[in-house]
Structure to design on (1061 residues):
């Protein structure tokens, strides 16, 4: 994956696929390995959102290629005794893209609220 | 590539396998992690939510990984194409700019081949083929089903052949050291040895360590005051030792039990006999059972798995020392008779000896015997053969028949493959243009061949899977009972070898099905195919293909004709009747001599008491005694003639004869045309009398009154060879339906000589006024009331005798109907393939003709004619084949002419209909050709 396609504008990546968006959200500012992403997503959404390994890694491969994620080769082997893992973090572009997608989403949610599709939120 | 770690659960392996769907770089980079994530999540779910959830997760995750992997591949290819397109455009621009002439028709440079590319190509081929096949479901269904039929029949046959001919005799260890020996007279195989020859050979020095003889016989077994028929084997004392079979209880025969005729009433019983008939009692050893009314002591029980040396012809119930055989007891015994062949001889070879050496060493013995007994042993020799389920006698002939059957069934599969190949040809004729275009654009020949092969492979794998499954089911369905043969311990379960064989067949089918169209279409002459759609490779299917279709119609005709001949024969025989009334006529056999009534007078008196007792059963209208009735398959022949006939010189008539008591004709329902039937007074004190059939009367005394005439009787059992005709009856069927001989009936009471010598297998004939089933147990009761120790009488309706007597005809009709149907379907597919191919190729020509005024009807007629032209040579040859077969089977046709025009008409009609029906679809396709469309390229 040497040829990284760095696209200037985050908007070029929109709309994001659900999986990509979820991965970007779950990663936050930290770094995680693949299985960690699966666990974190389930934990942060009370188990409502799940992601399968095939989908996860197909997305990771594409996101790395597109410059949304960066890989960090881990130095230590995993404490739980598994194989040596790669850790992933959001690149600046990734963060920008996540932000742009969130704003796109917010606009949609506001539209939904205006259409009285959502119950009054506690704001 | 991701290699699953040791100790991985099965699901892990599935997941790892599914990972291969990803393009290699991705699976190499992320595979281990993906697998790790999967295993952990699965463990987590198993621990928190149970195994079922974990299982469902495994399925979903495996499916998901395969799906994502394939999607990645597609994406990668798309990206590559985009890059190539951009690159080509860029190079083209550059080329033009530099003036180096980029406008040639050079083939695009093929990307280097790699396993990943190959796999991707294959995947593409598979998807392409699947799409094509699902687009024409009719073709796919017929192709898969017909391949399935072919492979299933082969699988089933292979199973039967393996089980019946190749498996060793059960319960015999080291069967490869055992040989069966066959004496020869010149080059003719004799069916058994003489006893003294066996005794001499046993004493001589040969490569056989142990030699043993056996002779089978039906006996009447009495135990617990019940009698029944059992199958016994009289064996020399070394028999079990020779086979290496060790009795499971008690002891083997002793060497001392080989000498002294009639002095060793001991018996070894089979495990089944002991368990079922003798109660399975542990204390069986030392108890006494009756064999033909003589007491025998049980000394041993054979091991459970040993069922005798002829498991194919039924289980042996018990073994008795050979010296107890009736042929060896008494004055005129066969201990020294070198002319009567009656014992089968087996031997165990010394370690290291071969069958050929054994034959040679036995021949030395026979040569010595020939010198010593030139009168009886001249030109006698011997042959050792391997010991197998199938008796060694005529094994070569039987094996030939089996090989012929195997070849026939293999040919059926080959024909099916040709059919499917033909259909593929017809289908791809339309695609010829596509192939030509693709080749012009640089698609490699290999690639095209591979695509056709992939299509064939998919069809063959589907057909093979279905066929193997059906074959396994079929072998479960075929039992020895259903085949109509008695077999012990034979169950048809396909083995791994058979499975392998069937897989091999599937592979062969792929080759045959795929190669034909592949060869034909991978090299279309490019120009004509591009120009128009009149295929360059000729207008009609290849010669082989046409020949196959024609041959199939011929084979189908032969089977259909055989079937219709036999159906007609049975029908005619039933219409003609059998000369007696089988309805409500019951028969049962009593074994008087075997059951202890040795003298003629005693037997007659028991028989008469049985007759009276049965006659008193309510619902029974008449009872009579005889030694047989028509169609009971038990035949006695005699030569009879006028007083002036010299029977020895072959004058007179060959007749069947039946011994019967008074009331016989009334009981079986045969009207007496002239004179009278038998009366109680027709006994030893009176003149010998005979009742003859009308056809015999006409043959011997044409235009004369037969009553009172004297009949010369060729049987040596009669002291007075002349008998007086007292009655004439109409034609009566012979002992088998296929024989048609005149019949004479003699008085049972005058046949004492025959009884004293052969016993009286008396048949009690009972005509009832009630349903036969209501009479069975009262009749059995009435018989056993006279003598409770008689062998239990089995009651048979004579209607079942009628049915059984035409068994071979019915079996032939059924089998040829089944094969005929199969052959018809195959022929239809074959003809369809050829005609459809021709139509596809002639589309343009048909279009032109229609454009210049040919009507739809003319086109239809043309196509039908093509179908018929194809079928006729096959029909002619098949017809001749069928006539030949029918003439060979003439004796089984119950008097129907083998050239029966109705049967021939029927069969030919069916075949023509099928051929026309098979041409119908292509014909309609041809007649609906749009001339404008066809001429568009002109």
């Amino acid at each position: 994956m040497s040829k990284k396609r760095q696209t200037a504008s985050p908007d070029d990546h929109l709309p994001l696929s659900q999986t990509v968006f979820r991965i970007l959200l779950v990663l936050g500012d930290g770094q995680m390995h693949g299985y960690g992403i699966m666990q974190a997503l389930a934990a942060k959404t009370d188990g409502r959102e799940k992601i399968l390994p095939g989908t996860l890694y197909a997305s990771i491969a594409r996101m790395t290629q597109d410059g949304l994620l960066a890989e960090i080769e881990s130095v230590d082997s995993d404490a739980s005794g598994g194989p040596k893992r790669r850790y992933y973090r959001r690149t600046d572009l990734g963060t920008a893209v996540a932000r742009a997608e969130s704003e796109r989403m917010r606009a949609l949610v506001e539209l939904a609220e205006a259409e009285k599709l959502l119950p009054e939120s506690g704001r | 590539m991701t290699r699953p770690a040791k100790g991985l659960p099965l699901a892990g392996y599935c997941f790892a396998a599914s990972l291969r769907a990803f393009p290699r770089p991705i699976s190499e980079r992320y595979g281990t992690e993906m697998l790790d994530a999967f295993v952990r999540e699965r463990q987590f779910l198993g621990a928190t939510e149970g195994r079922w959830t974990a299982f469902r997760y495994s399925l979903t995750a495996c499916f998901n990984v395969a799906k994502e992997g394939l999607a990645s591949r597609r994406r990668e290819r798309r990206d590559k194409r985009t890059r190539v397109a951009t690159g080509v455009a860029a190079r083209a621009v550059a080329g033009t700019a530099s003036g180096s002439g980029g406008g040639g028709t050079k083939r695009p440079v093929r990307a280097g081949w790699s396993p990943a590319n190959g796999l991707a190509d294959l995947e593409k081929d598979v998807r392409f083929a699947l799409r094509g096949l699902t687009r024409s479901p009719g073709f796919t269904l017929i192709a898969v089903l017909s391949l399935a039929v072919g492979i299933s029949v082969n699988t089933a046959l292979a199973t039967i052949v393996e089980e019946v001919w190749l498996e060793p005799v059960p319960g015999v260890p080291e069967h490869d050291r055992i040989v069966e020996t066959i004496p020869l007279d010149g080059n003719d195989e004799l069916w058994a040895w003489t006893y003294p020859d066996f005794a001499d050979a046993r004493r001589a020095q040969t490569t056989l360590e142990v030699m043993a003889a056996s002779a089978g016989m039906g006996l009447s077994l009495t135990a617990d005051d019940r009698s029944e028929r059992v199958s016994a084997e009289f064996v020399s004392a070394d028999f079990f030792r020779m086979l290496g079979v060790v009795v499971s209880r008690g002891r083997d025969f002793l060497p001392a039990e080989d000498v002294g005729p009639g002095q060793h009433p001991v018996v070894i019983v089979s495990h089944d006999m002991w368990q079922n008939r003798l109660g399975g009692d542990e204390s069986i050893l030392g108890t006494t059972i009756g064999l033909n009314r003589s007491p025998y002591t049980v000394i041993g029980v054979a091991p459970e798995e040993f069922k005798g040396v002829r498991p194919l012809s039924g289980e042996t119930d018990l073994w008795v020392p050979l010296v107890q055989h009736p042929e060896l007891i008494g004055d005129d015994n066969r201990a020294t008779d070198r002319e009567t062949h009656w014992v089968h001889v087996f031997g165990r070879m010394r370690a290291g000896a071969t069958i050929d050496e054994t034959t040679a060493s036995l021949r030395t013995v026979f040569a010595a015997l020939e010198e010593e007994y030139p009168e009886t042993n001249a030109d006698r020799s011997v042959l050792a053969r391997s010991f197998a389920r199938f008796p060694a006698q005529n094994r070569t002939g039987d094996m030939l028949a089996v090989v012929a059957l195997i070849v026939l069934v293999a040919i059926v599969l080959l024909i099916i493959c040709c059919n499917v190949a033909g259909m593929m040809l017809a289908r791809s004729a339309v695609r010829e243009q596509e192939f030509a275009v693709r080749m012009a654009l640089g698609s490699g020949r290999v690639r095209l061949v591979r695509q056709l092969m992939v299509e064939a492979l998919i069809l063959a794998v589907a057909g093979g899977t279905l066929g193997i499954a059906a074959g396994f089911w079929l072998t479960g369905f075929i039992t020895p009972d259903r085949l109509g043969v008695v077999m012990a311990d034979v169950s048809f379960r396909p083995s791994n070898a058979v499975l392998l064989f069937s897989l091999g067949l599937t592979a062969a089918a792929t080759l045959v099905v795929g190669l034909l169209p592949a060869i034909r279409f991978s090299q279309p002459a490019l120009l004509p195919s591009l120009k128009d759609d009149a295929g360059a490779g000729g207008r009609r299917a290849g010669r082989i293909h046409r020949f196959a279709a024609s041959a199939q119609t011929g084979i189908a005709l032969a089977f259909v004709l055989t079937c219709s001949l036999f159906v007609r024969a049975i029908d005619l025989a039933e219409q003609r009747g059998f000369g007696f009334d089988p309805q409500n006529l019951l028969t049962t056999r009593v074994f008087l001599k075997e059951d202890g009534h040795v003298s003629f007078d005693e037997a007659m008196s028991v028989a008469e008491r049985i007759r009276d007792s049965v006659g008193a059963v309510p619902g029974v209208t008449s009872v009579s005694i005889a030694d047989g009735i028509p169609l009971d398959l038990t035949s006695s022949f005699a030569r009879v003639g006028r007083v002036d006939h010299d029977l020895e010189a072959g004058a007179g008539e060959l007749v069947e004869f039946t011994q019967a008591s008074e009331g016989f004709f009334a009981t079986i329902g045969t009207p007496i045309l002239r004179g009278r039937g038998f009366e109680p007074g027709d006994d030893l004190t009176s003149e010998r009398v005979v009742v003859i059939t009308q056809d015999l009367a006409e043959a011997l005394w044409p235009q004369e009154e037969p009553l009172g005439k004297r009949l010369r009787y060729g049987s040596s059992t009669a002291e007075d060879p002349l008998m007086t005709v007292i009655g004439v009856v109409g034609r009566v069927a012979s002992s088998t339906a296929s024989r048609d001989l005149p019949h004479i009936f003699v008085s049972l009471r005058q046949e004492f000589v025959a009884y004293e010598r052969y016993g009286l297998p008396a048949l009690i004939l009972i005509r009832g006024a009630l349903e036969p089933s209501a009479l069975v147990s009262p009749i059995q009761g009435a018989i056993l009331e006279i003598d409770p120790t008689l062998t239990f009488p089995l009651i048979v309706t004579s209607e079942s005798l009628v049915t059984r007597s035409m068994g071979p005809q019915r079996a032939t009709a059924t089998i040829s109907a089944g094969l005929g149907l199969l052959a018809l379907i195959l022929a239809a597919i074959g003809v369809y393939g050829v005609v459809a191919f021709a139509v596809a190729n002639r589309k343009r020509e048909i279009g032109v003709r229609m454009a210049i005024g040919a009507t739809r009807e003319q086109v239809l007629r043309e196509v039908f004619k093509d179908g018929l032209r194809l079928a006729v040579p096959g029909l002619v040859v098949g017809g001749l084949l069928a006539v030949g077969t029918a003439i060979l089977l003439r004796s089984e046709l119950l008097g129907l002419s083998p050239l029966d025009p109705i049967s021939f008409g029927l069969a030919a009609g069916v075949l023509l209909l099928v051929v026309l029906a098979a041409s119908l679809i292509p014909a309609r396709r041809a007649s609906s050709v749009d001339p404008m469309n066809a001429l568009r390229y002109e």
